[in-house]
Amino acid sequence: MNYVVQRLLTFPLILLGVSVLVFVSIRLVPGDAITAMLGTEAGLLTPDQRAALAAYFGIDQPIWSQYLRWLTGLFQGDLGISSVYGKPVLAIILERFPLTLQLALMSMVISLSVGIPLGVFAATRNEKPSDLIVRMLAMLGQSTPSFVIGVLIIYVLSVFFGMVPAMGTFTPLFVDPLASIGQLIFPAITLGFAFAASVTRISRSAMLDVLSDDYIRTARSKGASQRSVVWRHALPNALIPVVTLAGVEFGYLLGGAVIVEQIFALPGLGRLVLDAITQRDYALVQGTVLFIAFNFLLVNLLVDLAYVALDPRIRIGSR
Amino acid sequence: MTPLLSVRDLRVGFGQNPAANEVVKGVSFDLAPGETLAIVGESGSGKSVTALSVNRLVDFGGGRITSGSILLQRSDGSTLDVAKADEKVLRTIRGRDVGMIFQEPMTSLNPVHTVGAQIEEAFRLNRGLHGAEAERAALEVLERVRIPDAKSRLAYYPHQLSGGMRQRVMIAMALASSPRLLIADEPTTALDVTVQAQIMALLAELRAETGMSMIFITHDIGLVAGIADRIMVMQHGLAVEQNTTDAVLDNPQHDYTKHLLNAVPHFTSGKAVRADNERTTTSEPIIRVDDLVVRFPVKKGLFKPKGAIHAVDGVSFDLMPGETLAIVGESGSGKSTTARAILGLNEKHRGAIAAKAGRSRRPIQMVFQDPFASLNPRLNVEALMAEPAIANGQKLDDALRDRMRFLLDRVGLPADVLNRYPHQFSGGQRQRLCIARVLMLNPDVVVLDEAVSALDVSVQARVLDLLVDLQREFSLAYLFISHDMAVVERIAHRIAVMYAGQIVEIGEARSVLSDPQHSYTKRLISAVPAVERRRQHFAVDATQVPSLVRPAGYEPPPANWREAGHDHRVRIEEIK
What we know:
Oligomer: heterodimer
Structural class of chain B: alpha/beta
Strand content of chain A: under 5%
Structural class of chain A: mainly alpha
Number of strands of chain A: 0
CATH topology of the domain at 5-262 in chain B: Rossmann fold
Strand content of chain B: 15-25%
Shape of chain B: globular
Strand order of the largest sheet of chain B: 15-16-17-13-18-19-22-21
């Protein structure tokens, strides 16, 4: 239990550190917000107007006081007002987040359900032709960029099947589940493709390690079948590195997938951040980056708790 | 009577071309029902591969049976040639006809399943029992292997059990299907000597109860003397001698068997102790340890009070120049912690360690257990041997190289090895290298922490002889840490027996070994397997080592000692 408590206690501390980093780093970028917002028209502003705008957005204050004001807001669920959209940052994020979450979940399901069995299969056929084929596919999958896969999928769909994936607006899951999943299935495959390859490789090597352990020999000496040896005795022991990898990947995916969102014209978190940065929308960048970091930490916390579930040596100390 | 198992001209090879890389080169033997065969040999003799061929687990380690037959009488009366059977059939003999237990109980149980689940699986696979039935059967078999409080242990995970308990669980699993043949592959090698005695007694009782046959693989001929009906001695993949136990032990025919019986240290209750170096109490000790205490704090969760592991609790002894003090004890007794404290390798909690200024600035050097892990594989012999000297401010010059050649010669290695790397040496040669290395600084005291435990038995004997020679030549004092009474008997002038962090008996080696006074020393000595005591019967003794975790602030009561003869002191035991 010590382990769990320790993880829970460090969580808010890390989050606080992240908030400082986010806040400071965006202010290290040269150029000011008002110029970025108004573009060439900023040159037409009088110094007084400029000062008034700066006061309106709060950027005339010293940096530590800006940070404190922002932090106080955070505790009240207030991430500030976007200077571009003129709406609360949190509202904008929550509008975009369902798509990103659903896309991340779908691509995780796809890549794990393909990658783990494939990796296990390859490990049990170590150095045989089928293993070599799986390894080559995995190498290919890992080294093909997602824009190639994405464009390829769109090309095949439109040219050979005359289908055009729904683009632009997103149908939420609870409005029309089928349409929603249908809309995201191809982006999810695109995202899941490369990750399935990583999962395959890591589960293959973890399984190979475990299959040479003594307790596997014990299981065989009891007369356990190959299937039981692989799935019951070996896999649970090989899952920890896979869960670690999946956690990191899921954390990244929750930050949005810029390239895939761009290709399939999806309004997800990735494009939101990208736009916010180019438009120098301080409040929005801060808010989304912090939100993404929060998700990342949360996923990592869940991964740590998953270890507890997977490995009794962590769950129960030795006596 | 038809044999249960009949092996003819078995050949097993490894790698791409098994016929060219044979590890077992034509072994034949028969095993009658209820009989116990011991296969004895050193590492690389092919004894384990032979045994693993009987249930064809050797296939999963990359081995191939290239020729020969293994005829097994199955429980239904039919005969199966295991060497030619396919995997599907083999699965039905594993567990059901042939059970197996392994050397490493620490790693042979699956860490993510409970002990109960793993035993129940054996019942499910071989007897078709499910649910509550399997659970009841698992409980029964755990009780049969004498695990105390068996019901609650079913829910334990392997890491919560000690080595001896895990090996009992392994045995329980193998017994689940009442196999007609049990293969035991060095089942006690990784265990402490008193635990080893418990497991051996248990196996003997179970064999009597069930009437099963056993193949017992070991490097220790003394260990199987009491349990085996027949002994097969293996060397370089060949069975060099096989006969009844008495014939092999009393009238060995082959040179290698004679060598194993004579050259290898066997425990003789103090008859083989050294006669040199009469202890003089007039000179000043080179090391004086006074009331050494080493504790490791333990946290018991967030709110519970902290305690401490009392690894070493009030240890005192003197080490005279040129003498060997052996510290014997089992794992967790604090013997290695004591050694490390003397070298300043761990924080000492309390007490004094006084070392007399000796011949060099670093009068105490240490040799470790594992000669494979204690030499950096990327450094050649010259660099390895120069290291202590360079660390001490010397330069790598001709004088230093001369000293290296001189010492290599003394430890029995040719002088031209300076450019070679550790992987080019055998285990025994590496340990010689480690010994030469510690002598580079001309120490007064060498601490040898289980320095011969990882070596094959015949190599062990030669390294021990070397250590005795070097001790005389360089007038070294040894602090010899070991769990092996037979080895200790060969090298020690004095012996300190450690138990649960304390010395319980200390004194002249002959006196301690031939006339042990403390109950633990007696237990330890009676647990040592010996060829000459093979007809003695041992009862199963389930005594466990007490926990060393004490609440914060706990101080042990002061020790009371009594004299048990000249230079022989015993701690007075509390009457329970």
